[in-house]
C-alpha cells in the first residue's frame, strides 16, 4: 500500500490515510486500497471495528487534484466516461463502508472536507477535536457533492444538508456535534486516542454477530417508507432475534448475565 498505513489493535483494524502533504486527499489509488483493506478486515473473524483517521493532523481534504487532471486529459482524448467513473468509484467506497459488518469509527481532526465529509457521515461513531473544520466546498468549485449527498442527508437530515451544501459553509467541532455529524468532541489529538480506547472497550463488550445484525437492521429501518415495509422489517427482525437467542452468542450472553460476569464471545 502506498496511501495507507494499517495497524491491528485487538478487535480493531486501524487505517490511516497517509498523504499528509495533500491533507490526505482521496485518490483512486487510495479508494482501491481502502476497499481492499475493508475486504480483508471483514474476512477476519477476530475483528469487530475499523478505525479511520488521517496522518499529519488532518482527516481528509476531499478529492485528489491529480486524479481530476488525469480524468480531464482522458476526457479530452475522447473518454466521455472518465469523470463519471472517477466520481462513481468513490460512491462505491462509501456504500461498502456504510454497510460493513464492522463498527466504523472515524477520528476527525484538522480538515474534513468534501469526500472526507462523506467518510465522516458513514462512520458509526465519529469523534472529533473541537478545532476540526468541516466543509462541503463543492458548489464553490462549480460542482455538486454528487456521491456524498445521500450519506450527508441520511446523517444530518435534509435541512442541515441543504444549509451546508448550498452555501459551502465551514463549521467547527461544536456545530458538528450539535447537528449530529460528530458524536463526541474532545479537546485535542491526545484525547482522541484516549477516547478511541474507551470506545473500543465498549465495542469489545458486544457480541460480534449481534453487532453486525444490529447495524443491518438499523440501516434497513432508515429505508422504511410504508406499513408493508415495516411489517417485512419486523418479520425479519423477529427471525434474526430468534436465531440469535438460540445461538452461541445468545446462550453465552444469558449465562454471563445470570453469573454476573463479562461475556466471553468465542463463537
How many angstroms separate the termini?
32 Å
Class by alpha and beta content:
alpha/beta
What helical percentage do the residues reach?
Answer: 40-55%
**CATH H-level superfamily title of the largest domain:** 2-enoyl-CoA Hydratase, Chain A, domain 1
Adjacency order of strands in the biggest sheet: 1-2-3-4-6-9
What is the domain total for the residues? 2
Q: In sequence order, what are the helices and strands, one letter per element?
A: EEHEHHEEHEEHHEHEHHHH
Nearest-angstrom radius of gyration? 20 Å
Name the poorly predicted regions: none
Number of strands: 9
- CATH topology (fold) name of the largest domain: 2-enoyl-CoA Hydratase, Chain A, domain 1
Tally the helices. Answer: 11
CATH class of the largest domain: Alpha Beta
Described by strand count, sense and barrel closure, the largest sheet is: 6 strands, mixed
Mean pLDDT: 95
Beta fraction of the residues? 5-15%
CATH architecture of the largest domain: Alpha-Beta Complex
Dominant shape: globular
Amino acid at each position: 500500500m502506498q496511501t495507507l498505513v494499517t495497524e491491528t489493535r485487538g478487535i480493531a483494524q486501524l487505517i490511516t490515510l497517509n498523504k499528509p502533504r495533500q491533507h490526505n486527499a482521496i485518490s483512486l489509488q487510495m479508494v482501491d486500497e481502502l476497499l481492499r483493506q475493508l475486504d480483508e478486515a471483514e474476512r477476519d473473524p477476530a475483528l469487530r471495528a475499523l478505525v479511520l483517521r488521517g496522518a499529519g493532523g488532518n482527516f481528509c481534504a476531499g478529492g485528489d487534484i491529480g486524479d481530476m487532471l488525469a480524468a480531464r486529459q482522458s476526457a479530452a482524448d475522447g473518454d466521455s466516461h472518465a469523470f463519471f467513473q472517477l466520481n462513481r468509484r468513490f460512491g462505491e467506497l462509501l456504500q461498502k463502508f456504510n454497510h460493513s459488518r464492522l463498527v466504523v469509527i472515524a477520528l476527525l481532526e484538522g480538515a474534513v472536507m468534501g469526500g472526507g465529509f462523506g467518510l465522516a457521515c458513514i462512520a458509526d461513531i465519529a469523534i472529533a477535536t473541537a478545532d476540526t473544520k468541516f466543509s462541503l466546498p463543492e458548489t464553490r468549485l462549480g460542482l455538486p457533492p454528487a456521491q456524498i449527498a445521500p450519506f450527508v442527508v441520511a446523517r444530518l437530515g435534509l435541512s442541515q444538508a441543504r444549509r451546508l451544501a448550498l452555501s459551502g459553509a465551514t463549521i467547527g467541532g461544536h456545530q458538528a456535534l450539535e447537528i449530529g455529524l460528530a458524536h463526541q468532541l474532545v479537546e485535542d489529538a491526545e484525547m482522541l486516542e484516549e477516547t478511541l480506547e474507551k470506545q473500543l472497550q465498549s465495542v469489545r463488550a458486544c457480541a460480534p454477530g449481534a453487532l453486525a445484525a444490529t447495524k443491518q437492521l438499523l440501516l434497513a429501518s432508515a429505508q422504511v417508507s410504508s406499513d408493508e415495509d415495516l411489517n417485512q422489517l419486523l418479520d425479519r427482525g423477529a427471525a434474526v432475534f430468534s436465531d440469535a437467542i438460540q445461538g452461541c452468542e445468545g446462550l453465552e450472553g444469558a449465562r454471563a448475565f445470570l453469573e454476573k460476569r463479562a461475556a466471553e464471545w468465542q463463537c
